[in-house]
Design goal:
Blueprint: E1 35-37, E2 51-55, E3 64-65, E4 85-89, E5 92-93, E6 95-99, E7 103-107, E8 116-123, E9 126-127, E10 131-134, E11 141-142, E12 159-160, E13 163-164, E14 182-188, E15 215-219, E16 222-223, E17 229-234, E18 242-247, E19 258-262, E20 265-266, E21 271-272
Parallel strand pairs: 12-21
Antiparallel strand pairs: 1-2, 2-7, 3-6, 4-5, 4-8, 6-7, 8-9, 8-10, 11-14, 13-14, 14-18, 15-16, 15-19, 17-18, 19-20
């Protein structure tokens, strides 16, 4: 089946540019607990080619988000706008999606191994704390709809995974999937693919998970049959984004909890998929 592209609006981060540099200059600050998986904010859950987030203070002079103009000849940016923020992972300058004084969204370089690495931020030459993190072989995280936008019966403050139908329809309580539908799930941190993206280059073609990777989709704790998973790998045109195309079993319950497991690493609990029974 053809691959499905995620609507760009779901990943766009709008920003204001041109903030003045503060005086006096202050070094960035963050700690290990504030370096998280960007999809679900799970601390310490990072792997190669995973989108991460750093929360802290003095992380940038202003606010800037990646735009098409920042991707030149397929090269991803390591700085954004006029800001001087950089993130280093294992000695590699990470590609950036978003910087602000309190938050950075970045890509763990795809050439990293599942080993301890040092992570630090610099702003205009000012060096933040050096944090040692251990990368996993995979660190699956489900991208979520904004809090409060996915009310589900009987669930207090539910969080819903970002999923679509093959035609791009976003799954919500008002436009849910049904048992037997094909669903596209949008995630980060699924690990190695064949081929693996090249460091600093925007991937433009499909690349499935490497042979031998054990991927499971759990609906209310029950595994979806492997034969019902049609594709799991790179989402072409988006760095660090993966997609999983699968068919909902006919026995799927309404609004199931959904989790993704890859080689022993599992996504966060209490995230739901909007499903309405026939």
């Amino acid at each position: 089946m053809p691959l499905v592209r995620l609507p760009l609006a779901l990943l766009s981060i709008w920003c204001l540019l041109g903030a003045e540099k503060p005086v006096p200059r202050v070094a960035p600050y963050y700690d290990a607990a504030s370096i998280v998986n960007a999809a679900d904010n799970a601390s310490g859950q990072l792997a190669a080619n995973t989108i991460g987030t750093i929360y802290g203070t003095n992380l940038a002079y202003g606010t800037a988000a990646i735009s098409l103009n920042d991707i030149r000849n397929g090269l991803l940016p390591i700085v954004l706008g006029d800001d001087e923020t950089q993130v280093f992972v294992g000695g590699n300058a990470a590609d950036l999606y978003y910087v602000s004084p309190t938050q950075i969204n970045f890509l763990v370089p795809p050439n990293m191994l599942a080993l301890p690495v040092q992570v630090f931020v610099t702003v205009d030459g000012l060096h933040g704390p050096t944090i040692q993190l251990t990368l996993g072989a995979a660190a699956p995280g489900l991208f979520e709809l904004p809090p409060g936008t996915c009310p589900l019966p009987g669930v207090i403050d539910p969080l819903c995974a970002i999923g679509t139908l093959p035609d791009g329809t976003l799954l919500t309580p008002s436009s849910p999937a049904k048992p037997g539908d094909i669903v596209v799930l949008w995630v980060t941190g699924l690990g190695a693919t064949d081929p693996m993206p090249v460091y600093g280059i925007l991937p433009t073609t499909a690349a499935p998970l490497v042979s031998g990777a054990t991927l499971s989709i759990l609906l209310d704790g029950q595994s979806v049959a492997a034969s019902a998973i049609f594709y799991a790998g790179i989402a072409p045109g988006f760095a660090g984004l993966y997609q999983i195309n699968f068919k909902l079993p006919g026995s799927t319950a309404a609004n199931p909890e959904i989790r993704v497991r890859v080689d022993g690493a599992i996504s966060a609990p209490k995230i739901y998929l909007p499903v309405m029974l026939n």
